[in-house]
Design brief:
The chain has helices spanning about 1-10, 15-35, 40-55, 55-80, 90-105, 110-135, 140-160, 190-210, 210-220, 225-230, 235-255, 275-285, 290-305, 305-315, 320-349, and strands spanning about 165, 170. By secondary structure, it is an all-alpha fold. It has a domain at about 70-295. Helix 2 (about 15-35) packs antiparallel against helix 15, helix 4 packs parallel to helix 8 (about 190-210) and helix 12 (about 275-285) packs across helix 15 (about 320-349).
Length: about 350
């Protein structure tokens, strides 16, 4: 009986899911210990966290709205990871996708034009790191960190300079009404969430059901064997950067075009900062699998959306809430990080 259960788990590839669920429980358990240490009720705190994330239609909309951009940046990291690349450049492409939406919808107030240009600029910004990796052997972590800073300062200059809103200097010019993403129902959730889920499903199909995707994954597992099998690993690396840039660029564009009531990049780029880095955690929790990333992003969205009610009703200070969130995220991400390190060591050996 034990063997049949193990065989079923292996056949259905349920081990990653089971490991992630156990990690979630451990994370919440450690969080409960922290709450008890500061004389707060874990049951009450987690109850209000859940209510704040899923208690009403608007709460669910907030959860899914936050899940959308990090789902896109997580796809960037996951696609590269499957190709053997530790790409942390999603942040820079996200900035360029956001500013592309502002610039090009102001020229031609069309929703699809803004989305396409966001994808294009995101992809273009990914190319320097790709070329440095393939043709100069520059490690992608070094190049993407530097390029993220360049993207930050350049886009910030555009935000406070040429594309600042004359009537409100605290943000850029707004996305025209004709170019805004439609909202779902009577909520602040736009169709960006639907587009993000579609992007995840397409990424899964690309990686697991096409010859092109097989070549990318083969390069990530063993580039030498892939080359002997007729796959060009260098080309796979470049394409992984480009496709990842498309995902992050689209995420940045959707963030600005589907975020009421702002529909603009705020001062200091506060409403577009950090999504690329959060996406790394989401990808690790989702085990670098596009379909797993959908659920991981929603989980992160719940943690973020439930914060305010947990603070207001359970009277838990924001600092402790952040500590608990960090513990949960780290605990859940450990299995995915372990797998990534193990695969990297195997390739190096």
């Amino acid at each position: 009986m034990k063997n049949s259960g193990s065989d079923l788990i292996e056949r259905l590839n349920l081990k990653p899911l089971i490991e992630s669920l156990i990690a979630v429980l451990i994370g919440f358990l450690i969080g409960a210990i922290v709450l008890l240490a500061f004389n707060y009720s874990p049951l009450e705190a987690y109850y209000w966290l859940l209510v704040g994330a899923l208690g009403s239609k608007d709460d669910i909309a907030s959860t899914l709205s936050y899940a959308t951009p990090i789902m896109m940046t997580a796809l960037t990291f996951a696609i590269s990871a499957r190709t053997g690349i530790f790409n942390i450049g999603a942040e820079g492409s996200f900035y360029f996708g956001a500013i592309a939406a502002v610039i090009f919808t102001s020229i031609w107030g069309n929703m699809w034009f803004g989305l396409v240009m966001g994808m294009l600029l995101g992809a273009l910004w990914s190319l320097p790191a790709a070329f440095l990796k393939v043709y100069r052997g520059v490690h992608e972590v070094i190049s993407t960190i530097m390029l993220n800073w360049i993207a930050w300062f350049f886009v910030l200059w555009l935000v406070v300079g040429p594309y600042a809103n004359p009537s409100d200097p605290n943000k850029t010019i707004r996305i025209p009404e004709s170019a805004r993403l439609p909202l779902i129902g009577n909520t602040d959730l736009s169709i960006a969430f639907v587009l993000a889920v579609v992007a995840a499903v397409l990424s899964y199909y690309l990686l697991w059901h096409t010859e092109f995707g097989f070549g990318m994954r083969a390069s990530g597992i063993n580039s030498r064997a892939a080359r002997y099998g007729g796959v060009n690993p260098d080309r796979a690396v470049i394409w992984s950067f480009v496709i990842g840039g498309i995902m992050s660029g689209l995420g940045g564009a959707m963030k600005i075009m589907g975020e009421p009531p702002t529909y603009a990049i705020s001062q200091g780029m506060a409403n577009v900062y950090g999504f690329g880095f959060d996406g790394i955690g989401v990808a690790l929790v989702g085990r670098n699998h596009p379909l797993g990333i959908i659920f991981a992003a929603v989980f992160f969205g719940m943690l973020r959306a439930g914060t305010s009610l947990m603070q207001a009703r359970a009277m838990v200070p924001l600092e402790i809430i952040r500590v608990i969130q960090g513990i949960i995220v780290i605990t859940v991400a450990i299995p995915g990080l372990y797998d990534l390190i193990k695969k990297s060591l195997r390739r190096g050996g």
